[in-house]
Amino acid sequence: MNYKCPECGGQLRDTNLKGQFFPWKDFPQVVLLSDFFAPQCEHCREIIFKGSQLRSLDEALEASVRERMASNIAALKEKFSETQKDMARKIGVSKEYFSELVSQRKSASLVLFNLFKVLSVFPSAYHCLDSFSGEFADGYIGPKSLRDRFKYVSDAQLSKLPVSSPLKRFGFRK
Ligand SMILES: [Zn+2]
Description:
By secondary structure, this protein is an alpha+beta fold. It has 2 domains: 1-71, Ubiquitin-like (UB roll) (Roll), CATH 3.10.20; 82-174, no CATH class. 40% of the residues lie in helices and 11% in strands. The chain has 6 helices and 4 strands, in the order E-E-E-E-H-H-H-H-H-H. It has helices spanning 51-80, 84-91, 95-102, 110-121, 144-149, 155-160, and strands at 12-16, 21-24, 27-31, 37-41. Strands 1-4 form a two-stranded antiparallel sheet. Strands 2-3 form a two-stranded antiparallel sheet. The longest helix has 30 residues, at 51-80. It starts with 11 loop residues before the first strand and ends in a 14-residue tail after the last helix. 20% of the residues are buried. Zinc ion (ZN) is lined by residues 5, 7-8, 10, 41, 43-44, 46.
C-alpha cells in the first residue's frame, strides 16, 4: 500500500495502535489494550480510519474499558480479601451489575471506572467508601453522590494526587 496522508502528504504506514489513547463515548481517553492496525502518517501522526475500522476500534475500546475495570476490581478484591457482594454494597451498585463488570459483560460508567482507577493507585481509600453505604440504602442503584465530584481523572493527574487522602482531594467528606 502506498497511500499519502490527506493532511500533510506524508507517508502512511500500517501501525499498531495498542497503547495509544482514544476518546470513547463519554470517556475522554481510553488506552487501547489490544493489537489494532491502521494507517498512520509517519510525519503528522494522523490516523486514517476506514468506516468499518472505526466500528472495530469502538469495540476494541469498549473491550479495553471492560478489561481494565475488571482487572482493577480483581486487584482490589484480592488485596482486601473482599467478597464480590461486599464490594458491590460498599461501592453502591447492585451485586448483579457488579458481577457483570467482573465478567466483562458490561462497561462501567465513567464515574465508576474513575473511582476504580483512583483506587488502583490508592487502595487504602477503599475503606473511606463505607461512608457512602447509607446513601444507597433506599434502592438507588449507582454512585449518585460521586457523579458530580468524581470528574474524569487522567493518568497524569492521577500520578500527581497527594498520597494522603486522595478521596479528600475530590471533595469527599471522610
Ligand atoms: Zn500527515
